[in-house]
Write a structure and sequence with these properties.
mainly alpha; 179 residues; binds zinc ion
């Protein structure tokens, strides 16, 4: 997925604006939509840095993986069952990445037509958790082994995103003609 430098710069700006809005602690629905915007921007930057031309189904899958946040919905109804020991629902864990990876491998073997999409979903879940580590309360990556959240500084994630976007921008400039 190639993006022009201006688009990459805009995506970095989106990440900064999103973080500012999240710090204002908006109502849950708005918070969810704003947070998803941050995830979409992150995924777009990471995909733009891919050295290979990515299948459309894989790209769609990575964005679709943002639906993992639907696991927050039980919380909205006071159902604390899946997040009473961890800051985010327990499905925000490396276990989910492993399960999504295993499913993707199975889909590729049994129904290759949907393989790219399934791989995209697995990659997307990993990208999602990566951003969640650096925003909000962090993620209990090693649940169920430990509920201890992994939480990085937003600045580290921002600098990394700027670096990836800069790399993707130099790549898009090197390419001549249709990609
Ligand atoms: Zn999340």
């Amino acid at each position: 997925m190639r993006l022009p430098p201006a688009a990459l710069a805009a995506l970095v700006a989106v990440i900064v604006v999103v973080q500012g809005l999240l710090l204002l602690d908006p109502p849950t629905l708005i918070l969810g939509l704003v947070d998803w915007t941050g995830h979409f921007a992150t995924i777009a930057i990471l995909l733009a840095a891919s050295p290979r031309r990515l299948p459309t189904a894989l790209i769609v899958g990575t964005f679709a993986a943002t639906l993992i946040d639907l696991d927050h919905i039980p919380d909205l109804f006071g159902e604390e069952g899946i997040s009473d020991v961890t800051p985010r629902p327990v499905s925000h864990s490396l276990v989910t990445v492993l399960v999504a990876g295993a499913i993707a491998a199975a889909v590729r073997a049994r129904a290759p037509r949907y393989g790219d999409f399934a791989v995209g979903v697995a990659l997307g879940v990993a990208m999602h958790l990566l951003r969640d580590v650096f925003t909000g309360p962090g993620v209990s990556l090693s649940w169920p082994l430990s509920a201890e959240p992994v939480n990085g500084a937003f600045l580290v994630y921002l600098v990394a995103m700027i670096a990836v976007a800069a790399y993707a921008a130099t790549r898009s400039r090197r390419v001549v003609g249709p990609a």
